[in-house]
Amino acid sequence: MTQLYGLPYKNPLVKGNSTTKELLRRVGEIDLMERCKLTKQTRKKGNGEVSVYYALQHWDKKAKKNTSLYVRKDQKDAFDKAHEAYQEFRKLVHQYEEAVIWRTRTKLGVKSHPELRPK
């Protein structure tokens, strides 16, 4: 195990045996993703029937305001899968980040600092 600042530091790549190229490949396989979650909305129609739909709120950078998109209930499963894909994307990017930082510190030969060593 590598020492970093006098403390044990595990290579994040050892856990899953993924390389940075493998992580990038997996990120590239994600076709669709959605950052926001859906919120269930109901509306009562004039005849007493209740209509169900979903709202997708997000920040519109161009308009500089929060906006809503309305999603039919038959599209909900697709949006849920897209949100799961976004969560996977975030996880993979974090693993890539950790791997590159570990590689950088290893290549640069980061040494422990005496004041940071545990006593």
| Percent range for β-strand residues | 25-35%
In angstroms, what is the radius of gyration? Answer: 23 Å
Helix content: 25-40%
Please, how many domains?
Answer: 1
Number of strands: 5
Tell me the overall shape.
Answer: elongated
Largest sheet: 3 strands, antiparallel
Structural class: alpha+beta
Number of helices: 3
User: What order do the SSEs take from the amino end to the carboxyl end, as H and E?
Assistant: EEHHEEEH
What is the averaged pLDDT score?
A: 82
Q: Spatial order of the strands in the main sheet? A: 3-4-5
C-alpha end-to-end distance = 20 Å
Low-confidence stretches: 3-7
Task: Give a written overview of the molecule.
By secondary structure, this protein is α+β, with helices and mostly antiparallel strands. The protein has one domain. About 40% of the residues lie in helices and about 25% in strands. The strands form 2 sheets. It has a 3-stranded antiparallel β-sheet with strand order 3-4-5, with helices on one face. Strand 1 and strand 2 form a beta hairpin. Helix 2 runs antiparallel to helix 3. The protein is elongated, with a radius of gyration of 23 Å. The N terminus is likely disordered.
Comma- or semicolon-separated keywords:
119 residues, alpha+beta, elongated
